[in-house]
Amino acid sequence: MRIANLSGRLVIISGAEAVDVESASGGRFSADPQAVYERWPEFLEWAAGSSPTTGVAFSADQLQPPTPCPRQVFAIGLNYHDHASEVGLVASEVPIVFTKFVSSFAGPTADVPHPGGEVDWEVELVVVIGAEARNVAEADAWDYVAGLTMGQDISERKTQHAGATPQFSLGKSFPAFSPMGPWIVTPDEFADPRDVALETVVNGVTMQSGRTSDMVASVAMLIASLSRILVLLPGDVIFTGTPAGVGLGMKPPRYLSVGDELVTRIEGIGEMRNRIVAGV
Q: What is the pLDDT of residue 51?
């Protein structure tokens, strides 16, 4: 199943059409795209047993972040060995965790204002939590996953590295620096949700190409590790890290400019297309 945020309303994507959940459920479930995760098992049961409903055609420009306001956002740094190597660092077996502020969330076709500085790309698989998780065993972790989507962890490197210690969260949270989408796909839709291809393309040139099976800490390991320390809440999101191919790692470094087209693709999910525009 694929669910999305269509102009602020929760929908199920059926082919090229969108089915409004509030209308189809007779008001049983809210139109709020974020609220559904509090009742995720109930929603899955309803969706599996509901009669087919005619949807409406839609355009990609109507899609907004599929999880628009999670209570907690986790982002993982240096979670691919090749990415750590390209920036001159060593991948850590202990997950490096920061956040991306929700005000940076944007839809899959949103324009990204360029704030100046060195703006970089980072394709990431994004995990959406479907049940409260505390002290979860790694073997059980996928039971707590509502679905997968994609995101760009866009980063302004000068801000990120300013100060005595890195400012990861600030450098990665300018407006529209967290485009997500185009929808959330439940794990059963994948041949193997632990191993999917992901890539970044800038102006038609492939910059990143990797597989999630190459992560240092897998999705299951991340959920187990985080839930040992804190409670993961329904609707929380985890940006799981990026493979090699970021602009910072190139020689010389290459960064995004106004007018660039940033295309993000993940196997089994789809693609996003974001344009870099002049900042305001």
A: 77
